[in-house]
Amino acid sequence: MPRPKMTRQAYEREMAAALDSALRDATAGHLTTRHVANSSAKHSLVDVVVELAAGDMPVEVAVEVIRFAYPRDVQRAVWKLDEYKRVSERPEDLMLFVAAESLSPGAKALLRRHGIGYFERNGNLFLRWRDWLINIERPNLPSIKTEALSLFTDSRERVIHALLIHRNEWITAAHLADITGTSPYTCSVVLQELERREWCESSTGAGRLRLRRLSAPRALLDAWAEHWTRRTHHRSRWYAFVEHGDQLLARLTDQIEKANLPLDWAFTGAAAANAYAPLLTGVDSAAMIVPPGSAETLAHAIGLRPADKGGNVTLVERDGASLLFRQPRSAYGACFASPFVLYLDLLDGRGRNKELAQHLLEKLEL
């Protein structure tokens, strides 16, 4: 039978007992605790109150219990603990603590700045109080990503793409919604999750008008790349006749303009990436992103022939974030996928794509 879900009260008691055991072990029994019932209005401000015996000197310990904590979660705990200290009759004999399953590095740093101790389920313990200093850091922390939101659904991926494009700018959820065609709610959810992961910083404002800026673009791009390389998209191989391989992009662009088809498209892959960040002496094939279900229509309209072998044009059927922020290239009069999509599409391991991807990444200066 599945294990019954633990109640909040039971979890608080369990974490308080684990903290008590950790303190006893860390101090060889010099510090012991006694649980105090939250009977007063003051005690109800925090989750757990225990009494700490340090020799003949009793100390009150106020504990906020959290499961998985990023700076945003810890900040709420800091406010509650500060309020508890404000109404305490003996603030000089009060110790403030956060107990959690797991704390992010940023959450720990925030607690240290506020002079608040912390304890994690795996035994990590930090305490600085009067003459006491305990700092136990154990390896292999449980990953707090188990509670993380999936960032790469179709609509959220559009927001991710926009944040990378505008990575050096302060931006609101309302503005993101305008430029991505998604809802303000979706944008807010993504921004909040990035802030929890410490990949985004916030400034003034509230709600949809709160200003935020991407602070860890490389980490975000790496996470997107990990997800991107696990996906599959419908690809078809075609052949276009050109006398010289370096004329392929120009020839395809000319044919598409003549066909005047009502659909979005963009060059991607090695040829497009090499045009954006030149490295290779030449690329004699092309890849194009087209909306799902439109590959055959486009191929027939511009005179491509099916090619199971020996093709020089690949049509990749995708929509969503792939066709956002297309870049015009004056040398060809064509649309290229954004540099971030170019980079992601080079991660397929073909030919010298890995080398070209690294070169493009250096140009992005993340």
Structure description:
It is a single chain. By secondary structure, the protein is α+β, with helices and mostly antiparallel strands. It has 3 domains: 8-145, Trna Endonuclease, Chain: A, domain 1 (3-Layer(aba) Sandwich); 148-228, Orthogonal Bundle (Arc Repressor Mutant, subunit A), CATH 1.10.10.10; 234-364, 2-Layer Sandwich (Beta Polymerase, domain 2), CATH 3.30.460.40. 37% of the residues lie in helices and 23% in strands. The chain is built from 12 helices and 16 strands. The protein has helices at 8-26, 71-86, 105-113, 154-165, 173-180, 184-196, 217-228, 248-259, 269-276, 295-301, 339-345, 353-364; strands at 31-36, 48-54, 57-69, 94-103, 117-120, 125-129, 132-136, 200-202, 212-214, 234-239, 266-268, 286-290, 305-306, 313-317, 327-329, 334-336. It has a 7-stranded mixed sheet with strand order 1-2-3-4-5-6-7, with helices on both faces. It has a 5-stranded mixed sheet with strand order 11-12-14-10-13, with helices on both faces. Strands 8-9 form a two-stranded antiparallel sheet. Helix 2 (71-86) packs parallel to helix 3 (105-113), helix 4 (154-165) runs antiparallel to helix 7 (217-228) and helix 9 (269-276) packs across helix 11 (339-345). The radius of gyration is 28 Å and the shape is elongated.
